[in-house]
Design brief:
Jelly Rolls; homodimer; 20% strand; alpha+beta; globular; four-stranded antiparallel β-sheet; DNA-binding; Arc Repressor Mutant, subunit A
Chain lengths: 251, 251
DNA sequence: CGAGTCGTTGACGCGTTTCAAGTTCGGTGG
DNA sequence: CCACCGAACTTGAAACGCGTCAACGACTCG
């Protein structure tokens, strides 16, 4: 299975340098040093670690795993975008996160996944069988420390999102969403503006606890007020990140 | 400073057995084995661990630390109830969690607290200086594993709360809140009904992303429909947990 | 060219918020 | 012991932001 020319919705870094068969983005656990507080793995550990992984690819809109599926693997996203979501019995859905290259997913307590993971674009991942991964964890000093610090960051992000969902208006939510996407791009050394939106309005709505129509109206309002420029429907520029940030925080 | 007879709002376990000066509730990190996937610490490690801690007490409504304060300690709550919250500049507030005895708080990335922690009732905590705690972590096999599993559980709870905040109605939110409190009591071996509510309607509102009035109306509606019985304003009985659970999940 | 998906916009309805009284209850002081 | 007070809670009425329903345009793909 090969990755189509990738003109789904996410152009992303047109082509990150590809080193001798390894995935095109560094593995968050082993190489994304800027996100970790602990010393990176040594050369030997990295080799042992990569030996555990299989690279897999998935087409746009495919489900990686569903809430309740037996949890057999953990993953590291190397290309594309993924949504993490939970749903109620009647279909109401909440997307709890969007994952970008370098993000890690699938680790949790219990023997089944607590959420659904879907490909927003064609994706590529490193896949680790969970027992092998756990064994590597326990054998490799510093790995759990690193995972703990990643989990702490996720927890802080989750709290920000709860503040958004519980207390922000529709326009504030959309502004916050755009700011956080921009910041994530900037944190990886890519420009914070313009950015591409690999997700649809419906997916943004499910992430922000709104409807498609309300998200669309918020985009329109931000555009008419000059806070954003929509080059295309999935490409946004920010003439003034400072003001947008103020809108996002209700300041 | 001594703890008053504790008739604030939280009678809680009237008097857990108190062993030779140790806090009345077991430390989540060392003793609450039912919440951990890893082997408990050995006797020696426990002794070394407790040597790091100071027991402190705080009166009702006092702030333990605020969002932005330099982070100097981590804590383990041993008695009472604590709220964790974040706020916007204009005062809108979101409570992201309620902590009960046995819960752990204060560990995060960065050198300042990312949220505010307040005593809902008179509280007692074990306090660990963060550097000593970190050193103990790195010296004690299994500790980071345990913290990681705790963080994973918190992350799963945070995702549930996002689903609640983004997609549930007011009555569903209140029902979910009551169910989760009941479940937490049951998980600690205490009766799941009746339960006491150590927090005010305003604090419940800030947790559920609602207003005081809406929370009150939801309580009234659940009461009139026979789903709950309010012995007093802060004591709830559940005649039929199954039906309440269905309401909570929109099923 | 027709069908389908996605996004935008308008009109209207509804659930929650806002504003405003009241009620209950525990604590305090006369 | 009781009157008073304030905090917390409840209830009602009106306002409003977001959801729902519907129409339509832009674009893609057969």
């Amino acid at each position: 299975m090969t990755l189509p020319p990738s003109e789904g919705r996410l152009p992303l870094p047109p082509a990150l340098p590809r080193e001798n068969g390894r995935p095109s983005s560094p593995c968050a656990l082993c190489a994304a040093r800027q996100f970790s507080v602990c010393a990176p793995l040594d050369q030997d550990s990295q080799v042992r670690f990569f030996a555990l992984a299989t690279t897999i690819r998935l087409e746009q809109r495919r489900t990686l795993f569903q809430e309740g599926d037996p949890a057999g693997h953990v993953f590291n996203l190397t290309d594309g975008a993924v949504s993490i979501s939970k749903a109620l019995a009647d279909g109401r859905r909440q997307i709890t996160g969007f994952l970008l290259p370098g993000d890690f997913l699938g680790l949790q307590q219990g023997d089944s996944y607590a959420y659904t993971a879907e490909a927003l674009t064609p994706i590529a991942l490193c896949r680790f069988p969970i027992e092998k991964f756990q064994r590597f964890l326990s054998e490799t000093p510093g790995m759990e420390h690193r995972l703990l610090s990643m989990a702490s960051n996720e927890l802080a992000a989750a709290q920000d999102q709860m503040l958004l969902l519980g207390r922000k208006t529709a326009v504030e939510r959309v502004a916050s969403f755009l700011i956080s996407l921009s910041d994530r791009h900037a944190a990886r050394g890519r420009p914070g503006s313009p950015i591409s939106l690999p997700m649809t309005r419906g997916e943004i709505a499910d992430y922000l606890g709104l409807t498609i129509e309300t998200v669309s109206r918020a985009f329109t309002r931000l555009r008419k007020e000059g806070r954003i420029v929509l080059d295309t429907v999935d490409r946004v520029r920010f003439p003034d990140l400072g003001t947008l940030r103020e809108i996002a925080t209700g300041g």
